[in-house]
Amino acid sequence: MEETSSAKFEQMASSIVSSRWVLFKDPPHKAPMSVFRTASSASDMDKDGSPTIQQKGVENPSSGEGSIPRAMGQNKARRLKEKGKANDDYAAQHEQNALEAVERKSRHEEWAKQIQEEMDDKNMERNTSNYTSMSKAYFDRKKKKEIMTRRQLFTSDYTPTMVDDEDDVDYRY
């Protein structure tokens, strides 16, 4: 007899629990429309006003329609955070590399310019005493033109500017 009374108790307890059980509880601010709800379904409510199981439609939690999005796990959140930090680190490193490349390029240009100026100075100081006068004049003209062109002091489109009358320039020597 005890077996039947305990079986009745379990059946009664499970029926009470299952009568108030809600498959997917929606937040109060966003309640999806029930599939089976009609104007006459107000009579299908329990005494406390909650819908019965027959009235609720079974929703697929992975469909994303009307279901609450699942919270992100701690491991995934940590991985995303680390990935974000890594992306920031990559961007900072890329920017630093670009700045270093620009600096390296400018140093290289300065170095090349310095070497060229030293070569130009050597050419200008060259001993031309054993040259003939024509060779010396040709050499001097050619080297001066090359040097001045490289130093951008000589331009073919140079036009002298006229001095204004208002300037206090004295041309008498």
From TrEMBL:
Residues 51-65 have a biased composition (Polar residues). Residues 26-110 are annotated as: Disordered. Pfam families: NAM-associated. Residues 83-92, 101-110 have a biased composition (Basic and acidic residues). InterPro entries: NAM-associated_C. Residues 19-145 form the No apical meristem-associated C-terminal domain. This is No apical meristem-associated C-terminal domain-containing protein. It comes from Pyrus ussuriensis x Pyrus communis.
